[in-house]
Structures are given as structure tokens and as C-alpha cells.
Specification:
four-stranded mixed beta sheet; globular; alpha/beta; Collagenase (Catalytic Domain)
């Protein structure tokens, strides 16, 4: 599957994104391309064998909106840095994909204020933290999670390897 077979649909819900990261659309497309290329080269995911275009929805939003979603879908009345809604989590996902001419992988929503605060606290650039959170969200919609320690270790290793391709240091090292 060629990586030009992926489509990242970006919705900028809060104009402040364009002030803090004017090239966010180009950066996002580059990150998505690197994640999908890395996963395709290093993992054997059934969805890649379907050889269909992949669609990803990315919403660049704010704490208020993310807090509403987090409360509604996770029962947590607070904002978080990134939310991912992966269609791959549905039991019939692959069977349903075979019925269509494209694969809708899911939605990623990133909260601006939480992300800015975390970047400052972690003493990393906004750009690098954004790339990390987008990589994290993309891995989630590809079926990765971090609920169990061994899954968390695998996901962190994937994130670290992908971020290294972008010359971004390991966010899990002190």
C-alpha cells in the first residue's frame, strides 16, 4: 500500500492552533505518513492487506470541547491532551471494511491548552509535544493501547521509534 493512499482530514476547531503552530496541517500530514509507513514496515495489521484508502479525522480543538467528550465517552469530567476514537475497536471492523472502498480509521481530538501546559511542564517544544500526541493518537486508531503493562511498553517503543525518525527525543526518558 502506498502511503499516498492515506487521507488525513483536519478540522481546526480553535483558531489559536494556527497562531502557535501555523504549519500544523503540513506537520500533521508528515506525522501521519511516518506513522503509517512505520507501522506498515514493522507490523502485520490485517487492515493493510485490504489495500484500501485510509481516512483519519483529526480535530484540533480546545480543553472545553475535549472535556465534554471525555465526560460523555469516558465518564471523566476533565480535559485531557488527546482523545482517540478507533473504529478498529469494533468487533466487525475488518468484515465491514471489506464492504466499502475505503477504511475510516477513526477520530483524534487534541486539546490546545492542555497540550501547551504539558509542553511547558515537560520542557519540550510545542512542535515536539504535538508530534508525540499525534503519533500516540494515530497508534490508538490503529489498535494499539496502553491499558496493560506489556501493551504500554509496546506502544511506547513504537512511539519512540517513530519519533526518532523525526529527530524527536524519547518523551519517556527523564
Amino acid at each position: 500500500m502506498a502511503m499516498n493512499n492515506q487521507h488525513l482530514q483536519i478540522s481546526i476547531e480553535d483558531d489559536r492552533w494556527l497562531k502557535v503552530l501555523p504549519e500544523v496541517e503540513d506537520i500533521s500530514a508528515d506525522v501521519a505518513d511516518k506513522v503509517l509507513s512505520w507501522v506498515l514496515s514493522n507490523q502485520d495489521l490485517d487492515l493493510f492487506h485490504l489495500n484500501l484508502p485510509l481516512y483519519i479525522n483529526l480535530s484540533l480543538s480546545n480543553d472545553s470541547f475535549v472535556q465534554k467528550l471525555n465526560k460523555e465517552y469516558r465518564g471523566l469530567d476533565k480535559s485531557t491532551n488527546v482523545l482517540s476514537f478507533a473504529n478498529i475497536d469494533d468487533e466487525d471492523f475488518l468484515a465491514e471494511c471489506e464492504l466499502y472502498e475505503e477504511i475510516e480509521l477513526g477520530d483524534i481530538i487534541i486539546a490546545l491548552e492542555t497540550m501547551e501546559r504539558e509542553a511547558q511542564e515537560q520542557e519540550v517544544t510545542f512542535h515536539d509535544h504535538y508530534c508525540h500526541l499525534l503519533v500516540h493518537g494515530l497508534l490508538h486508531i490503529l489498535g494499539y493501547d496502553h491499558m496493560e503493562p506489556e501493551d504500554a511498553a509496546e506502544m511506547e517503543a513504537c512511539e519512540t521509534a517513530i519519533l526518532q525518525l523525526m529527530n524527536i527525543k524519547n518523551p519517556y526518558e527523564d
